[in-house]
Design goal:
Radius of gyration: 29 Å
Structural class: mainly beta
Number of strands: 21
Shape: globular
Distance between the termini: 89 Å
């Protein structure tokens, strides 16, 4: 009679032990993964990086490319503009070596939601913005957080201490007050609106927390912006003038109340029939090297 084999139960027991071990390892891995997510979300691991940086033009549709040259046809770089599927826009700036230097994303309301700075094509810092809007679409609150980028990860310096802006409006929907709260405390900016006899907005004056005027914007009767005056210590410091299409036609600088013509600080602009900038002139120097030309390209339909 053949002898019965007795090794089978031992093999079954070993297989059962291996299954239990594998199950324990899997459970431990799942626990560590959940723990990682919890710690990451609470900011405990912010020194490692709490958000993987995503950079892609997927889902974006190019609608314009602008290249910059001086009068000697020296190339300075270019910018590419995109539309996104959610109604927002994006702009990517490249230097003369075709290296990415800046990426800006905007929501459908036209407010920036992310600004990325780059060095030699690699992103080095990021500022993220979140917004709250009222029923009229007016921005009532915005929060900005700054982070540094390393190895594709964003590390926010002080996630619990962002810069927060809050806004107030009059019955016409014009901003009357803006409050800024950040690491350095709270500052308040006040806006005073003036209207013409027909009830149209004529000007907006901006005052700092000490009551000193810092800016004055003047509007035409049709609502288009005519000029923007910037003030420092009670004196005019800069003057920007615009045409009826909203294009800047002059950018003048002042010092001690007098027009400052030094340091290449006077600019005038010429425009193409479609409203795009054709050339920017520096009025302080006759050298053509200070004339910058912009070439506009549109993708084929």
């Amino acid at each position: 009679m053949a002898r019965k084999k007795t090794a089978a139960p031992a093999k079954k027991a070993a297989k059962k032990d291996n299954s239990a071990l594998m199950f324990s390892i899997f459970g431990a891995a799942m626990f560590l993964m959940l723990l990682w997510l919890v710690l990451s979300n609470t900011g405990a691991l912010k020194h490692i990086g709490d958000k993987k940086l995503k950079f892609s033009t997927d889902g974006l549709t190019e609608y314009q490319k602008v290249s910059c040259y001086d009068a000697a046809k020296v190339y300075y770089g270019y910018s590419v503009y995109y539309n996104s599927e959610d109604g927002g826009t994006a702009r990517f700036d490249y230097d003369k070596n075709n290296k990415l230097s800046l990426a800006s994303y905007y929501n459908k309301e036209g407010d920036s939601v992310r600004i990325l700075s780059a060095s030699s094509g690699d992103f080095t810092s990021v500022t993220d913005y979140t917004y709250e809007y009222d029923g009229h679409g007016s921005k009532v609150k915005s929060v900005s957080t700054y982070g540094r980028i390393s190895d594709g990860y964003i590390t926010y310096d002080k996630p619990g201490d962002p810069v927060t802006f809050e806004y107030e409006y009059d019955a016409q929907g014009n901003m009357t007050k803006r409050s800024r709260t950040g690491p350095s405390g709270t500052s308040v900016t006040t806006y005073k609106n003036a209207y013409d006899s027909a009830g149209a907005l004529a000007s907006v004056e901006v005052y700092d927390k000490d009551g000193a005027m810092t800016q004055r914007t003047v509007y035409r009767a049709d609502g288009s912006k005519d000029s923007v005056e910037s003030y420092s210590e009670g004196q005019l410091a800069e003057l920007e003038q615009f045409d009826e299409h909203g294009n800047m036609t002059q950018h003048l600088f002042y010092k001690d109340g007098e027009q400052d013509v030094g340091n290449g600080s006077l600019y005038t602009y010429d425009y193409n029939p479609d409203g795009s900038i054709a050339v920017k002139y520096d009025a302080t120097d006759d050298s053509s090297s200070y004339n910058y030309y912009y070439v506009y390209e549109y993708p084929k339909a």
